[in-house]
Every structure is written in C-alpha cells, then in structure tokens.
Amino acid sequence: MAWNEPGNQGKDPWGNRGGKDQGPPDLDEVFRKFSSRFGGGGGNFNKMGVLLVLIGAIIVWGLSGLYKIEEAERGVVLRFGEFHEIVGPGLKWKPTFIDEVYPVNIQRVNRLNASGLMLTQDENVVTVQMEVQYRIEDPHKYLFRVTNPDQSLSEALDSALRYVIGHTTMDNILTVGRDKVRRDTWEELEGIIEPYDMGLRVVDVAFKEARPPEEVKPAFDDAIAAQEDEERFVQEATAYSRQVEPQARGRAERMLREANAYRERVVLEAEGEVARFTQLLPQYEAAPEVTRERLYLETMEQVFSNTSKVMVDNKDGGSMFYLPLDKIIQGGGSAPMVEQAPANRQTSTSSSGARTTSSDNSTGRSSVRQGRN
C-alpha cells in the first residue's frame, strides 16, 4: 500500500506519522540542529565553512589546471576565447575557466581518400581511388583558419582528381600515365589549398587504384594484356639490338682498319716501285743489255728463292758437279734435286748453287745426274 493512500497510518517519506503533514521538513531547522551538534554558534560555523569551501575550491581549481602535452603535440592556448600562444611538449598549467588548451599532433601523417566514377578526356568512365598524406605544420591555422580543415582537404582532393582525370585519356590512366596523373593531381591540390592557408603540408599523393567499370572490364583486360605484350616485345628487341649492334660496329671497324692498312700498303708499294723505276731508268738508258740481264737475274732469284732446285750453267760440258752439302745440312731439308741445263742456257737450280742431286730411297745415297747437250 502506498504511503499516501487512504487508511495508511504509517510514516510518509518526510518522517511524518499519521499522514497529517504531507510537506518536506524545514531545511533551516535541519541546518540549525546540525550546527548545534558541533558546539558552535551559527555565525562562527558559517564563516569557517565558507573559508574551508573557498580553500578547497582554490585547491581543486589549481589542480584542475594541470595538463600534459605529448612529445609529438603542440598546444594551442586560448585566453578568454582569443588565441594567446602555442606551448611545447611537457607538463603545463593553465588557469581553469580562463585558458583553454587544444593539443594538436604535428608529427603524425594523416591520410584522406578520394574515389568515385569519373569521366575521362575521351568520354570514358573510370573508377579512380587516390590517397593524400599530409602533416599539420601550423596548429593555430589548422584549428581556426577554416571550419573543418580535414573536410576541406578531402573536397579539394576530389576536385583536383576530377580535373586531372577529365584532362587525361583512359589508356593513360590505366597503363603508362599513372605517375603523371599522380603528379598532376598533387600540383593541382596544392594550388587549390594554398589560398586557404590551412596550416597543412601535403607529404605525398598515392594513386591506389584505377579500373574500368565492371560491365566493360573483360575488354579492358584484353587491351591491357596487349599493351603489356607490346612493351615486352619492345624490351626484347631493344636488348637484341644492344647485343648485336656492338658486334656489328666491331666488325665494321675491323674491316675499315684492314682496308686502310691495305690501301696504305699498296700505295707505299706503288710509290716504291715508282721510285725504283725512276732510279733504274738512267741506268737502263746507259747500258740496256746489262740492265736487262740484271733485272732478269733478280727476277729469277726472287722466283726460285723458295724452291729446292738449283740452276747451273754447264758451259764447260763437264760431268762432275760440286754439291754443297754443308749448306744443304744447314738448310735442314732433304737433298735438293740438281738438274743440268743445256749448254749456253740457264736452268732452274737451288739458291745454294749446287749441281742437281737426287735421293736414292733404296740405298739412302745421293746421286748426281749429268745433263747432256
């Protein structure tokens, strides 16, 4: 049964019996009873209580002003809502209700992504995803230059990416032009955020993904495979040319040097012949027969210098010939064949001047054959 129902004679929540008084107890009366228990008058207690409350409040206020700034952070201090200073890392104190401190991490690399379906220069649709990495350089500007710097940077990245994609063909986006798209997006993004002076510095822009729509993906996969085959063939041809070209250049250089050497040798020989003829002409004019005989002998000596035969002139008609064995032995060759020329004629002989000899294979002895007139 509730305490205030009819017929309830019990205590109510305020300590009244019989339910006659339904209101709360008098607070002043309760406070006077409490102060009287401590044996002091009401005025003295009020002064001491106020003093204790003030001291406690000052202690709590002083302790509440302690704060810590981490090593990677900087604290932006506002005094009565106005920028006051930027404090470094460490244990700090601020007057509570007067200063407010906003710690900002300036060493952490923050990341934002931008992605979506975008229209290319050649009126194709491509799905592109790009990530920007940035750091906070100026905490004050980061907090108070714009309302939401992260959201502003994300919108600037999306705008820059769509502008660059709209000025690039789809083949370049999917294949060889990815790095150029990344660099152009970076430059365009910095150009957009520079007037806002948000206190941010872009560290890197990463081109994460670029793909055609799923409906036409198989056709683009074939095109990419063909592009890769083309690049592979070009690289193989380049490697082959780098291998063959030095060899061809070496052969051409060798042939050129041989031709130059041959030309110089022929020219020198021709010049020598001309000089020899110039020197010989006066002698021939003075004594034609002697000069002609000498030229004949020099020519025959040159022709028979590498043969094993000896040319003798048997004008005496004798049958004995002197065989120069000492020169034959020094030559280290087999005994030369000596042939007798007819009388009053010159025939082929060896350069040693020996008469014609022949080897007898059965007896190992040398024999002399005498020519007859």
Account of the protein in words:
With 373 residues, the protein is α+β, with helices and mostly antiparallel strands. The protein has nine helices and twelve strands. The model is unreliable at 338-373 (pLDDT under 50). Strand 6 and strand 7 form a beta hairpin. A three-stranded antiparallel beta sheet has the order 3-2-5, with no helix packed on it. The protein has helices spanning 27-37, 42-64, 139-144, 149-166, 170-174, 178-193, 217-286, 288-303, 325-331; strands at residues 66-69, 73-79, 82-87, 90-93, 99-105, 110-119, 125-136, 200-211, 310-311, 338-339, 357-359, 366-368. The chain is elongated, with a radius of gyration of 60 Å. Among the domains are: 27-64; 66-105, no CATH class; 110-212, Band 7 domain (Tetrahydropterin Synthase, Chain A); 306-368, no CATH class.
The assigned structural class equals alpha+beta
Q: How many angstroms does the end-to-end distance come to?
A: 179 Å
List low-confidence stretches.
Answer: 338-373
Q: What is the subunit arrangement here?
A: single chain
Q: What is the number of helices?
A: 9
Q: Supply the CATH architecture of the domain at 110-212.
A: 2-Layer Sandwich
Rounded to an integer, what's the Rg over CA atoms? Answer: 60 Å
Q: Could you spell the SSE succession in H and E letters?
A: HHEEEEEEEHHHHEHHEHEEE
CATH H-level superfamily title of the domain at 110-212: Band 7 domain
> Total strand count, please?
12
Question: How would you write the strand order of the largest sheet?
Answer: 3-2-5
**Overall pLDDT metric:** 77
GO molecular function: peptidase activity
Pfam families: Band_7, HflK_N
Domain Band: 64-224
Keywords: Hydrolase, Membrane, Protease, Transmembrane, Transmembrane helix
